[in-house]
Design goal:
By secondary structure, this protein is of the alpha/beta class. It contains 9 helices and 11 strands. The radius of gyration is 31 Å and the shape is rod-shaped.
Length: about 300
């Protein structure tokens, strides 16, 4: 008993005719007759009372009732497998760092999911080292983040440069400068997102080269909360420029000189997983295109 034969059987019941069923199934009538004869032989039961009009036997009625949900479920399964093969369905688990998670990704995913409504996406928002651990553990498929430390088991593809600016209270001494030099941050409290913050390491390296002492740091665990801490006068924050698209009361934003505050951001996955397959590849291509355009 196969799906094709069951669909033929249901078409005969629907039309009350072998001939009309053959037309619907695009068969010659002899093929329909042969399929039903084979099915009846397999079941050891007669399914139709043949006469001037075709009617179902008791066995035929039972098969019809029981086979309807089976055929519908099989058709749905075939459609799902076809979508999966084309990369138009599936479940993709991604990791993202801020500010991309809050300021870039929602709009991009809205467009993607309108185009591919059968692809399910799960999102983890973490810092880069945590995302790398999740990738290695197989808990996410890929990540959008700053460049990871060099590693032979990871594939990293740059997508864009994240530009950072210095945000400070509007009455802060450095607010008088048009552009903030990295050395000027010495002696002022700097708000950072974590002890492993990549721009902290860059800044410390530059200051050490100039013979400067350690920085005065305050860790604020969320980069998206930085503006509120600056507004409260707690210090200066180096934040992505994209976060300043919305106004921040009582603060001043200044560019920072040099290449200090430009972080390369892009795509990370296991080296062994690249190039991605199916739905993951669809999402990767879409994100690459949209993020490149957005930050081009």
């Amino acid at each position: 008993m196969d799906l094709r034969t069951l669909k033929t059987f249901q078409a005969i019941v629907k039309h009350g005719s072998f001939n009309k069923a053959a037309q619907e199934m695009n068969y010659v009538q002899s093929t329909v007759t042969m399929q039903i004869q084979k099915l009846e032989a397999e079941l050891g039961m007669t399914l139709f009372e043949r006469g001037k009009e075709i009617s179902l036997t008791e066995a035929g009625r039972l098969l019809y009732e029981q086979s309807m949900p089976i055929v519908k479920n099989m058709e749905r399964l075939q459609a799902s497998l076809s979508d999966l093969k084309l990369g138009e369905s599936g479940h993709v688990r991604i990791g993202v760092t801020e500010p991309t998670a809050s300021y870039r990704l929602p709009g991009i995913l809205k467009k993607f999911m309108s185009k591919y409504p059968h692809i399910q996406i799960s999102i983890e928002i973490m810092n880069t080292p945590s995302l790398v651990e999740r990738i290695r553990a197989g808990e996410i498929d890929f990540a959008l983040s700053t460049a990871p430390d060099l590693s032979t088991d990871l594939y990293f593809e740059p997508f864009f440069q994240e530009e950072f600016i210095a945000l400070m209270p509007e009455d802060h001494p450095l607010a008088q400068m048009e552009t903030v030099e990295p050395e000027a941050l010495q002696g002022h409290r700097l708000l950072i997102a974590s002890s492993t913050c990549p721009y902290r390491r860059k800044l410390e390296t530059i200051l050490q080269e100039k013979g400067q002492v350690a920085l005065d740091l305050m860790i604020v665990g969320s980069i998206t909360a930085m503006k509120q801490y600056v507004e409260s006068g707690l210090g200066i924050a180096l934040i992505p420029r994209i976060m300043m698209e919305s106004s921040s009361t009582g603060t001043a934003a200044r560019p920072v000189s040099g290449s200090l505050i430009h972080m390369t951001c892009g795509f990370i996955c296991k080296e062994s997983a690249y190039p991605l397959q199916l739905a993951s590849h669809k999402l990767y291509q879409f994100l690459k295109q949209e993020l490149t355009l957005m930050n081009g």
